[in-house]
## 1
Amino acid sequence: MLPQEIILSVLRLQKGYISGNNLSNETGISISAISKWIKILRKCGYNIESKHSRGYRLTGETDLPVPWELARLLDTMFVGKAKIVYLRTTHSTQNLAILLAEKNPDSDGMVIIAEQQKSGRGRENRKWLSPKGGIWLSVILRPRMPASIITLLPFAAALAVCEAIKKTTQLDAKLRWPNDVTISCKKVAGILIDSSIEAERINYAVIGIGVNANVKSSLISAHLEKSIKVTSLSEELGHETSILGLTKEILERLEYYHIQMEHSVPHTIIDKWKKNSDILGQKVALMQRNRTIQGMVADVKHDGSLVVRADNCEDIDVVASDVYVRY
Ligand code: BTN
């Protein structure tokens, strides 16, 4: 157990205050180190009251996904088991995860979480604004699958996030092709995948997940195109949601779908994805480099490509990297 976990376990057992001396005796941690740890724990979101004559009392648990709390809650086999890196601020968890994956062959399941990102990245080189209150994380996976399956990973990750949001908030989250999660047609979460492929095998994939949890959507939408509507879970709910609880659910489901992809027929992911989406029949505009095609979504194929029936009745097969879809 880490020193902070030992201190927390003693504080949790104590009904009222415990003096610094007793806390030090019970934990075997020196008095001066105790007061340093108490400061750190407060910064990590725990409410710890202190009274000069009586000592310390834990009056509130944290809701931040700090590694020791997340590891305690996570019911996974390898995601979050190798290591959880938790940072107050970083440029991009995705960039850091790529560096760690490159240098560390044992990084399967490593999770990198930041409270805020200074240069968060979105798909197609867009900026991803990441203030405090959101869930900004990247997971390193080393899937034992042929490289052709990689196109399904973003669908699996989006499905995991969508289901986790539905379970923890009861909001009616939906999937929008290729890998956005929406509520009332407004984007609430996005997925970014970076991968390294060698000799037709996936060396590693980094799954970047951004969820607008307890943030103001006006802070996020400022730089986005007007056609992209965004929302946050707290705005949809009218109150804040549990970041720790939602992070746990996302990571558990991500592992579940990853294992499904390795062991069962991969198209089950797309079938499940379709059940959580209302995209079929929706009108869309396909924005290609030199033309825009109006049409209606006819299907999502088992490899994840979108079939759009154009207004002239021609069926067009599109993959996410080729086209921008306006809904
Ligand atoms: C999208 O454009 O929809 C994908 C957004 C992905 C954002 C996440 S936040 C955590 C990770 N770090 C990044 O820099 N980006 C991803």
Note: The chain has a mean pLDDT of 93.
## 2
Amino acid sequence: MILKQSFLHIFLVFTSLIIHIDLCAQNDIDILINKMSIEEKVGQMTQLNLGFLSSSTNQHDGKIKQIDSNKLINAIKNYHVGSILNTAGTAYSIEKWHKILTQIQDIAMTTELQIPILYGIDAIHGVTYTKGSTLFPHNIGLAATRNPSLIREIAKVTAKETRASGIRWNFDPVLDIGRNPLWPRFCETFGEDPYLVSSMGSEIIKGYEADGLSNYTSVSSCMKHFIGYSDPKSGKDRTEAYISDITLWQKHIPSFKAAIDAGASTIMINSSMINDVPVHSSYELLTNLLRNNLGFKGMIVTDWEDIIRLHERHKIASSPREAVKIAINAGIDMSMVPNSYSFCEHLVDLVRTGEIPETRINYSVRRILELKKKLGLFNNPYPEKEAFKNFALKEYKTLALNSAEQSLVLLKNKNQILPLPKDKKYLLLGPATNCLSALNGCWSYSWQGDKENVYPEDGKTILDVFKLRFKKNQILCKANNQYSNPKNFVINFSEEEINKVDYVILFLGENAYAESPGNINDLKLDYNQIELAKKAISTGKKIILVLIQGRPRIISDFSENIDGIINASLPGSMGAQAIVNLIFGDFNPSGTLPFTYPANTGDILTYDHKNLSAMIRTAPNKRKYGGYNPEFKFGDGLSYSNFSVSELKLSKDTLIKSEKINVSFLVTNYGLIDGNKNIDMFIKDHFASLAPDVKNLKGFKKVFLKAGEKKTINFEIDKNDLFFYDENGIKLFEEGIFSIQIEDEIKSFYFIP
Ligand code: BGC
């Protein structure tokens, strides 16, 4: 008993110490806030673009920007700016980043309050803006891996390389749901399913933050873009979306909720509008939903220029000053202004005139300063020496290759044409054959990712890898490294040369683009690529098509005549090696689609559509219509081995209240080689008071099986897999029949909530 009491004493002393330390910590921030002028507080809420603090000298190949120390001093000393973002051009060497960060923090340390600057950057699939960093597949490819631990590992490496660059805040991950394949940021999403996006997104958050923000292996994450950005009516970036409250809850909110629960420290807001309300202006969405309902306690940052755009684009504010007032009242903490001082000037004035209470901005300033403190910036604002050693390690390349391999999806393999034999002759065609930007896509050493000359010298195109692996006389290729070069869209060989070829491999898709410059009017593959594919088919050779693209471009004009199809998405810096490895069977593919690949531009339906859309009907003239008829389905993906799923069993046929059901089934590899099998588990709600989806993903696993091996796999489900939301975000649990579906196996049970 005494022993227990003394333990209790130690425990209490210890916890009170922690509470004391914590209170002291809070007091530090409060003491600091009490010392700050209105200008200094507003400055903390201001984020400027590094380009705005630079002077540009026009050089022959574009604008080279030099950081202007007078502008920097003006921003930090006179405007008390708290945060800077971005690069003033393309990627910098790590040494240059250190120099820039040191220059910035040196100025901050000479101010009276010595508040360090919080630097933020987009490290979207690896560290976008540091030369020599490791670029991984984009999220749309990562979602195809169905491998959360791999994704966490990638995030960890990205955190280490960002921090090694001297930067502690990453504007990632994108948690928007890829419901509209026209949207040019589709590749930044983890696909169309909320459960998949939630699972992968929270792994990224943990990879960035779980070591503790003060640790030199971590960065602060930034979930984005809250909310409803990804499903604009027109498919064009930053245009209006119309999303019902039920759909917001059902599809768009869960990934943010999961990330908040995983500990995400900051969030960025959707530049666009939902149901005629610009999200940056919405107290309902930013304060009632995000803060009060979802419980987000971290810092809210705007997206690029999105306060002034309430006036300039959305036209809901009659002046830039009113725009500031609306956004701050809605709940914004920090404004990514980022190319003027208008925000500072208006907000200072609004506080001085009492239109915005000083207590309101104190809340935001406290969140910003607390984040800086958690990141260890008050202890050491400079690039950390320990972090530097984590940059560009050899094993990161292996991880990039491994993740690229797992991200590739084999969609068609007629008569097992793939893998190809290694002793034949190959004609390589198409704009992506010899182009690094196509493999890496947006946010790759530049915003658009399309500057071929800024990629690392040791970067390999697909043609480079072929040249390394095969004899000269085995390859026929004249591909140019500029994607749009007309030579990439013709077959410039004689009939005699073509006759000697055994296989034609087409590398088609899209060149790199980011955000609005990637808007398209048609999801169909570009005309010149379709024509090239048709010409290739007319050679009569066996054809393999590799699609290197950020979104599913429609190929139904010619896909029937292709023997093997691989969807490579944007596989990153080791993408070429991964693709060639897949074509020649150096590994066994396991990727599965995280989206529906449409067959027609007018028939875009996600897999979790309503029963109404699933119905196939016949008109009086006997024409069939309706149904889910994509080119490839969500979850499609072949292997070089053969797997079967059988003996699906449920541990109960009735689930009551908080009970659980064990779902078990047998997976057999009856092929000749070992391989991974990705398994998706769907649940179908047969009848509900709000029209249910035909099915919903509720679990997935990656299972490794040796040739001939069988394994019993288990999932557990409970009532949390069986509810749906009403328009107020209330979870509805309704009695009725549900089914579990794994591949073609289906078993039903009854649920009594
Ligand atoms: C994008 C954000 C990005 C920001 C900063 C904006 O244009 O929408 O996703 O984080 O720029 O670069």
Note: Confidence is low (pLDDT under 50) at residues 1-24.
